[in-house]
Specification:
Elements: H1 2-39, E1 43-49, H2 59-72, E2 77-83, H3 92-105, E3 113-117, H4 119-126, E4 138-143, H5 147-155, E5 163-168, H6 172-182, E6 188-193, H7 197-210, E7 218-223, H8 227-235, E8 241-245, H9 259-269, E9 274-275, E10 286-291, H10 294-309, E11 320-322, E12 326-330, H11 331-336, E13 349-351, H12 357-360, H13 362-409, E14 413-417, E15 423-426, H14 428-433, H15 449-465, E16 467-475, E17 481-493, E18 496-505, H16 507-529, E19 534-538, E20 543-548
Parallel strand pairs: 1-2, 1-3, 3-4, 4-5, 5-11, 6-7, 6-8, 8-9, 9-10, 12-13
Antiparallel strand pairs: 10-12, 14-15, 14-18, 16-17, 17-18, 19-20
Amino acid sequence: MSGARITRQKNSAARFAAIYVVLVYMVFFGHALAESGVNHTPKRVLILYSFDDEEGIYAGFDRVLRSELRSRVPDREELYTEYLDLVRFPTPGHAKDLVKLLKLKYSEHQPDLVVPVSYAAVKFLLGEGKDLFPGTPIVALFNVRRLDDLKHAMVNGNVGRGITGVASTDEPARTLELALHLQPDTERVWVVVDASPAEQYWLEELRQDFSPYQHRVAITYLTALPMDDLLKKVADLPPHTVLLSTFFFEDGKGQFFAPEEALDLITHSANAPLYGIYSTYIGHGVMGGHMTNPEKLGMLIGGLAVQVLQGVNASSIPFVVDNSAQDTVDGRQLRRWNISEKQLPAGTAELFREPSGWERYRRYILAVAAICIFESMLIVNLIISRQKRRRVEKTLLQEKAFSDAVIGAIPGLFFLQDETGKNMRWNKNAEMLVRYAPSEATPLRNVAEEYQHVAAQAQQEIFTTGFGEGELEMLAKNGQRIPYYYSGVRVELNGKPYLAIVGVDMTRPRLAEQALRVSEVELRSLVEHAPYGIGRTSVTEDRLSARMESL
């Protein structure tokens, strides 16, 4: 019994320990899971555009901004976008309706950050929308010309939340400077200004910016014209005129346009190049200008937004002035208006530049040029070699003609034979006299049979000792056997030994010798058989020097 009690007590202790461990795990790890759930609450960012959703001017800005937020914010974020359309609806009633709509729409999704794009959206938040999203920080994009207005509003206490942002620059005067640099013969500048209230503010700014140029060119402002009238105007501009445009939202009849749509219409009709201030205008017939890059602005705004979402107080972040604008041109428009790339100022960005034939086909041109040079060198080398060969051939022909003349002039026979006895060269006498043609005759065939052994030994002697001579009989074409006295020497041509033989016809000397012998015999016979005595007298001494008694 006591053992059973002890066992039950042990089991109860074990169950108690297990329950205790489970409770501790739930307390600690349950808290960690709760904290983890809190950390996964999304960061909500509201982007307020003052225009409608058809404006392409901030398309690049929006893409880069979203990319920056998604790549650099560690927590999950939710991006909301609203288009306030304050250009087409600039009335206070519209602003009040927007406040009601945004309050209702975001009542359960309070944003952690608001990004107003352009001063009109900032002004909306500071004015009619000051009660929207209380305490929510602001990262604003606005024109640097409005920086003082924004700071004044902050000093006066109209802003109850942290605010920072990027002040962009436009500098239309530098766009005009670029136009005058590219077209130095410009005499007139026509500035296109729309009829919207926002553009009327910019009209005064443009007048101030362009006032230093009044002494250089005549500046005309095309303000509040209906689109049809504007197109007629720009289609008939006087020579040496350029156009310049900043924004165009509304014409004189109240017709609204997207800026890119208006640019397409104007540049299609204009007989002079048009310059602008935003890089997004490139591709809509604009020559270029000192242009702000919206994508760069999106990167700057994104960097500030990331800091605020990570807990940095927006009020502690100073405003950033963007000075990244640069001279930018459309290469297609340069070609359209016959403006040389050489006239571009240093540092100008040329978009849609069509590479020259050299740039496009440089590798092929260099390859073809290398092949042509190589072939030219081969041709020159061949020509030189041919000339050398001709000179050598001429020399050889001259030498051959000389040797042929010498060989042909040799009296008697001449043969040049190799070690096998084959005839390699011969003179004309040999062709005319020997029975068998030297070119076809086998070795020693033209030698009389009884002399062939002697001739063979003589050949061997000459090849061995270098010289030999003797007599033999040759077979003639007329069937006769002609005696020849020969002499031969060994010569080397191109490293090979040859036998040069000269033969002299011995027929006449032998006949003369034979006649002499006959004459001697006849004379001796006459002397010996004469019936009278024969004496020899000396003409000079007038006496008988010898006498012979008659036998």
